[in-house]
Amino acid sequence: MHTKVETGLPCTQRTRRSVVRAGLAHMAAIAAVVALPAQGEDRFVVAVPSDVLEDYVKFLNGREALTVTDFAGAYTRRDVVEVVLLQQALHRGGWTRRLELEPLPNVARILREIEWAHAACSGTSFWREDIPATSTSFYFSDATVELGQFEAGLYTVANNRQAMAAKSLADVRRLRALSNRGWIVDWRTLEQLGIVYLQHVGQWPSMPKMVAGGRADFLLAPFQATVDLSLRVDTIRLVPIPGLKIGLHGTRHFLVSRRHARSAALLDCLNTGLSALRQKGVIRQAYEQSGFFNTRVTHWATLRAPER
């Protein structure tokens, strides 16, 4: 059973605070209606990973997504700000119908819901390479992350001395890595880098626990906006191996269901809005303030898989 939390306009400040409290209390089952004006009774479900939606509500902290101009602060990260960017892009592109942010447990479920048109689009971006070339179920938005822009840290626990001492690709190849075979770009990159000890894990929340428990040495994650670049997942604190980063080759896009009755209009509004946000520098600002585009690692050595 889903608990629906209304955050749409118009609403009073008191109502918004109540909404946020309700959202934090029931996030495991939330389906949030976001602040876009509604015309008609069409349901437009946006599929969002459950953990992202939880942090998104905390990140907003009572704000409306369309009013966000500062993407820094607590709970910011790449996928959280993408949920905001999606809404702002649609609004700028002329979309006026109400959206519902629906939490889903994993990527496979998100793709199924979009494929079946139970969801109109994704709330976060996907690697284009993660979608089979033979698929006819999805439209891709214009790229939010372009070629060469995605850099990831090799995140471990601070007391893993072998991992923290790694200085080169040869050192990293001696470490045990976690990823998901369904994340084509991540998995392929690690294989091409020659990572021998590479273990598949189906669910993201399990990965930090396994690293913290000593069952693996590192996982890949975008750089964070925290002072020390650390990543917190519940009570677990992960830090990047200092001085090293990985360049992931590909582009990232929002997905739109081809089978949805209004997919063409949705895609047009989305691309129009993304273009406007890009021209105004909002997309870059959001990615920089969330720590994803991170100037503090500019001079770190890049372990980049050869292009094919």
Rg result:
19 Å
User: What percent of residues are in strands?
Assistant: 15-25%
Shape: globular
In total, the number of strands is 17
CATH superfamily of the largest domain: Periplasmic binding protein-like II
Q: What do we call the CATH topology of the largest domain?
A: D-Maltodextrin-Binding Protein, domain 2
Which structural class is indicated by helix and strand composition?
A: alpha/beta
Point out poorly predicted stretches.
1-41
The span between the termini is 46 Å
Q: Any idea what the CATH architecture of the largest domain is?
A: 3-Layer(aba) Sandwich
- Name the CATH class of the largest domain: Alpha Beta
* Number of individual domains: 2
Instruction: Note the run of SSEs as H and E.
Output: EHEEHHEHEEEEHHEHEHEEEEEEHHE
* Average pLDDT for all residues: 88
How many separate helices?
Answer: 10
Helix content: 25-40%
| Largest sheet properties | 8 strands, mixed
Describe this structure in words.
This protein is of the alpha/beta class and 308 residues long. The chain has two domains: 3-146 and 251-293, Periplasmic binding protein-like II (D-Maltodextrin-Binding Protein, domain 2); 151-247, D-Maltodextrin-Binding Protein, domain 2. It contains ten helices and 17 strands. The chain has helices at 13-25, 50-60, 78-92, 107-115, 161-164, 169-172, 184-192, 206-212, 263-279, 282-289; strands at residues 3-6, 30-33, 44-49, 99-104, 121-122, 126-127, 138-140, 151-156, 176-179, 197-200, 218-222, 231-233, 236-240, 244-247, 252-253, 255-257, 301-304. Strands 8, 9, 10, 11, 12, 13, 14 and 17 form an eight-stranded mixed sheet that branches. The chain has a five-stranded mixed sheet with strand order 1-2-4-3-5, sandwiched between helices. It has a two-stranded antiparallel sheet with strand order 6-15. Strand 9 (176-179), helix 7 (184-192) and strand 10 form a beta-alpha-beta unit. Residues 1-41 have low confidence and may be disordered.
